[in-house]
Design goal:
CATH superfamily of the largest domain: Aspartate/ornithine carbamoyltransferase
Number of domains: 2
Number of strands: 9
Bound molecules: phosphoric acid mono(formamide)ester, norvaline
Shape: globular
CATH class of the largest domain: Alpha Beta
Radius of gyration: 19 Å
Strand order of the largest sheet: 7-6-5-8-9
Strand content: 5-15%
Distance between the termini: 25 Å
Oligomer: single chain
CATH architecture of the largest domain: 3-Layer(aba) Sandwich
CATH topology of the largest domain: Rossmann fold
Number of helices: 12
Order of helices and strands: HEHEHEHEHEHEHEHEHHEHH
């Protein structure tokens, strides 16, 4: 099955989006179908207030441009309300527990929480103790909303996901983990290309390999050959200190015109953003016609609106 042959039911049996591990291909296809119709409604200026009266709280312990604005705009367009809660300003930042925060916010009638933080276990605890839906807006281990927006972008470009090869270059980080899971579950071939010491978490890799074709290599040529999508992310994720040894190890994995030339002729370049030109990617690649970075960034809005409708709407 692929996205286009899947018949949507308009619902998924989940309350939360924590890491994609427990999402089936059908769950992902539901999200992609709804994203497509919400994107059309948005561009036609058609009202789609499916979350009228619902409230999303957004807890941020790390910086954000895309995640913050796309969730806030998304909730507004769906007729709901959002609350921005910087962890510096709420008591969580002064040591109040996730448990107590979850219980308190549940009593105020919050319907959903989008949380961006460090530890994956904090996101899972929030879901365990609260009565609301929890959406992972990035942790040190996963960035599921970004990966879903990315595969939606791939689907828009190629009209399918099955058999599409995505090669990811660089740090085996939260993006690498979520792309492996989202790609493997939708029939894509995902190849993570990283040097020894910076490869993805072996447990997450093994989990993704159970669902589909996922490989890890340190050979740029092996990864880029036959690729339809070349993807990279920053050398240093939020919360990581700059380390010259890591920079030296990752520099040979930079996506530049030579790497693009090894891929398929119409291959596209993707990046979750923010990007550092001259580090993980060169300006002549990221600013070229083959780059779909702004389509990817826009798709955060549509895909997250679909996620919120499916998790927080009438079920
Ligand atoms: N890609 C992404 O999550 O961007 P922000 O850090 O700006 O939210
Ligand atoms: N790996 C990056 C992704 C940013 C969207 C980080 O965690 O900082």
């Amino acid at each position: 099955m692929d996205v286009s042959s899947y018949k949507p039911k308009g619902r998924i049996e989940h309350k939360h989006l924590l890491n994609l591990l427990d999402y089936s291909p059908a769950d992902i296809y539901e999200i992609l179908h709804l994203s497509e119709s919400l994107k059309t409604a948005f561009h036609k200026g058609k009202k789609h207030e499916f979350l009228k009266g619902k409230t999303l709280a957004m807890i941020f312990s790390k910086s954000s441009t895309r995640t913050r604005v796309s969730f806030e705009m998304g909730m507004h367009q769906l007729g709901g309300h959002s609350l921005f809660l910087s962890s510096n300003d709420i008591q969580l930042g002064r040591g109040e527990t996730i448990h107590d925060t979850a219980c308190v916010l549940s009593h105020y009638g919050i319907d959903g929480i989008m949380i961006r933080t460090f530890k994956q276990s904090d996101v899972e605890d929030l879901a365990r103790y609260g009565t609301f839906s929890v959406i992972n807006g990035l942790t040190d281990d996963f960035h599921p909303c970004q990966a879903l927006a990315d595969i939606f972008t791939v689907y828009e470009k190629y009209g399918k996901l099955n058999g599409i090869k995505l090669a990811y270059f660089g740090d085996g980080n939260n993006m690498a983990h979520s792309l492996m899971l989202a790609g493997a579950k939708t029939g894509m071939e995902v190849c993570i290309c990283s040097p020894e010491g910076f490869q993805p978490n072996p447990d997450i890799t093994a989990a993704a390999q159970k669902f589909g074709k996922v490989t890890v290599t340190d050979s740029v040529e092996e990864a880029a050959t036959g690729a339809d999508v070349l993807y990279t992310d920053v050398f240093f994720s939020m919360g990581q200190a700059k380390d010259p040894k890591k920079e030296k190890a990752l520099m040979p994995y930079q996506v530049n015109v030579d790497v693009m030339a090894m891929a398929k002729k119409d291959a596209v370049f993707m990046h979750c953003l923010p990007a550092h030109r001259g580090e993980e990617v060169t300006a002549d690649v990221i600013d070229s016609e083959r780059s779909v970075i702004f389509q990817e960034a826009e798709n955060r809005l549509h895909v997250q609106k679909a996620i919120m409708c499916l998790l927080m709407g009438k079920r």
